[in-house]
Amino acid sequence: MAEATLETVPLDRARVLQWLQTYGVYAGVALLVVVNIVITPHFLTAENFRTQAVQVAPVIIVALGMALVIGTEGVDLSVGAVMALAASVTALYLGYGLLPALLVVAVFAAGIGLANGALVAFVGVQPIVATLALMVGGRGLALVLLPQLEDLRNPALASLGSGDVLGVPYLILIAAVLALLVAFVVRRTTFGRQLLAIGDSRPAAQLAGLPVRRVLIVVYVVCALLAAVAGVLATARLQASDPTSLGNLMELSAITAVVVGGTPLTGGRVNIAGTVAGAVLIQLLTATLIKHDLPPSWTQIAQAAVIVCAVYAARGRGKR
């Protein structure tokens, strides 16, 4: 009898951990919604849901790129700097029109991503070190280009930040379309399968003849471009370019969303739906604490607790 009991306990714990790995982020979102319905006034209003969705959209977009990088067993710490750089470049070239400004932003972002990818794929620098260098250098370049906050008065940019289709803001639509596109690439394309194979075992992928270096470079370029999109959308929403603060700690928010959403840091797997849910979870948690007048330090502590719980639940998930 005692032996049967001892055998059942690990089994139950394993089942609980497996359930948390698969559904924990969705349960967390549902729990936060229920708690807010009970304790937060005016939570169940269309305006509140719209506000929350608009605020989380840039985080989702950055987290999508981060999920791809983490899927290759890497990490990109430069995404916040790319957002700031996108804001600076947008302000400098907006006088030529929105489209030319966006093209220049894409060139700058692709350059950052190309540098990250080349350092990782060709030089062999660890991703955290390579992207840390671009994180510092990118933020510095953004401040050189635009040392201070600048108000932007452009009808096209304003429409991008506050416009909507049938009541759904452009920011939400763009985030949703990008999430579906990235999910399709990961699940249904050869590139997605190559990405996951590289994250699962880079030496094995090289022996199998996969274009490891090319895939890594493309992944880092895509991550930088998505961060630039988020930077432009955040700038459009604020109608101001502020490279000193835009994107600060965004890399941590993106990594948190990816990890909480079920993508292991050891690579070989990407959970896009979970990443979106993870970003929503962090947004709801932050909004809940703010609405109840708790200081920002409590938000950071709460996010740290969520990360610890997610990493604990993920133990063994990424082992090969």
Automatic annotation (TrEMBL):
Pfam families: BPD_transp_2. InterPro entries: ABC_transp_permease. GO terms for cellular component: plasma membrane. The gene is rbsC. Its main location: membrane. The keyword Transmembrane applies. This is Sugar ABC transporter permease. One of its GO terms (molecular function) is transmembrane transporter activity. It is found in: Cell membrane. It comes from Streptomyces pilosus. It is a multi-pass membrane protein.
